[in-house]
Amino acid sequence: MTTLTGRPRTALLVIDVQNGVVGGAHERDAVVANVAALVDKARAQQVPVVWVAHSDEEGLPLGSPQWDYVDELQRRESEPLVHKTYADSFEDTDLEQVLAGLEVGRLVVAGAQTDECIRSTLHGAIARGYDATLVADAHTTEDLSEWGAPPPAQVISHTNLYWSNHRAPGRTAGTTTTAEVDFGPSA
After folding, report:
1. In this predicted structure, what is the pLDDT of residue 44?
2. How are strands ordered across the β-sheet holding 81-84?
3. N or C: which end of the chain has fewer CB within 10 A?
4. Are 182 and 142 in contact (CB under 8 A)?
5. Cα dihedral sign, 109-111-113-115
6. What parts of the chain have a pLDDT lower than 50?
7. What's the DSSP call for residue 148?
8. R_g of the chain computed on alpha carbons
9. What span, in angstroms and rounded, lies between the C-alpha atoms of 1 and 50?
10. Tell me: the pLDDT tens digits for 73-94?
11. CA dihedral 139, 141, 145, 147 (to 10 degrees)
C-alpha cells in the first residue's frame, strides 16, 4: 500500500504520447491503441486520467504540432494536463498537487519514452510514496541503438522485467497488461 495517507484512489498517468515523441517509436500503433484502451477503461470506471506533456525548445516547443498528443488520444477538458521539462513527471511540475487533490496514492503508468520519462517517473513515484504499476504493453521508445542502447524491444522487455520485481518499504510496484489492468487500490 502507498505510504501516502488519505490517498485511496488510483489514477492512470499517460506520459508523453505526443507526435514528436512517438512518431518513430517501436510498435507505435499497437502501443497507442493500448493506451487508448486504458483511457477508455479508466473513464468507464471513473478513474482519473492525468496527462503529462513534455516540452523543450529544440524538438517539442509548447503548443507546436510536435508537442500535441497523437490524434488517437483526446484529452477531456476535465482531465488534468501536467506540463513538464524534465524526465521525471514530478520534477518541477504540479503533478503532486494534482494527485493530492484527486486523493491518488497509486499510479498506473503508460506512455513514452520507456528508457527516459517512463523509468524516471516510476522511480520518482516510488520515492515520493506512491504505488506504481507499469502497463507492460502500453509503453514504448525509439531506436537509440546507434548510440549504444539496446534495440527498443530489449529496452522495453528489460524495463518490464526489473519493474515487475521492484519494491520499496510500504510501497508496491509491478507490471500488468492492458487486458489485465486493475484500477482498484493496491493489495
Report:
1. 96
2. 81-84, 49-54, 9-15, 104-112, 131-140, 175-176
3. C
4. no
5. positive
6. none
7. T
8. 15
9. 21
10. 999 999 999 999 999 999 999 9
11. -130
